[in-house]
Write a structure and sequence with these properties.
This protein has helices at residues 5-11, 36-39, 60-70, 104-122, 129-135, 141-150, 179-185, 191-199, 210-215, 219-232, and strands spanning 22-26, 29-33, 52-54, 126-127, 156-157, 163-166, 170-171, 174-175. With 234 residues, it is an alpha+beta fold. Helix 4 packs across helix 8 (191-199) and helix 7 runs parallel beside helix 10 (219-232).
Amino acid sequence: MALSQKCRSKASASVKSARGASAKIISKVYSFALPRAEVKKFGLKMPPPGVKVVFTATSPTAKKKLKHWATGRIKLTRPASASEPGETKEVETSIKPSAYLPNSRARALLQGLKIAEEDLKEAGGAFEPSEVQLLLSGISRQALEKRVKEGSLLAVPGPSNRRRYPVMQFTAEGVVPGLKKIQEALPTRNPWAILNFLVRSDNRLGGRKPIEVLSDGDVDLVVSAARGMGLQGG
């Protein structure tokens, strides 16, 4: 390999000579052009510190062949960053794993979603509007919306932000009694918080679920428990 004396002194320990190969220095970066017949004979060890070796492919096919040839022959290190004219600049980006960790607000959002999913399961799922209309003897969509607005029916956001109606509030006769009073007594109008109150066991109700007590007709007891949430913070 034809190298200047300066190049030879720095790269002799790193490059095995190949007949017909030429080399030139590009701002302290060695660039080699090899004849096809010599490529298979060419061997490269890791250069000493401070020496950078650059292989250049002039076409996608050449790049593919170079990558195949280099695999197993050259130990890859981090890309060299260029700061002088003529050098190829490759920037290595490394983001610390800790940066991906969700903060307390993100964890709260995830926890809220998990709780909502569990509450829906406890409620037996949720009906679509058309199914509720059928259950309530053909009630119109407008009347359904009115009942949700006044609080006598509970609806939660569903897929595509369309309302869904938790199953546990319905009975063979229609809707459990006192649902409007319960929603008025609770310190929140968030439908997920209301659902959570209705389907979770409450010590103030002897460990029973509010929705079960409502189904038995004891509305005042559940109203008292709902007001207690406001006084005690839930």
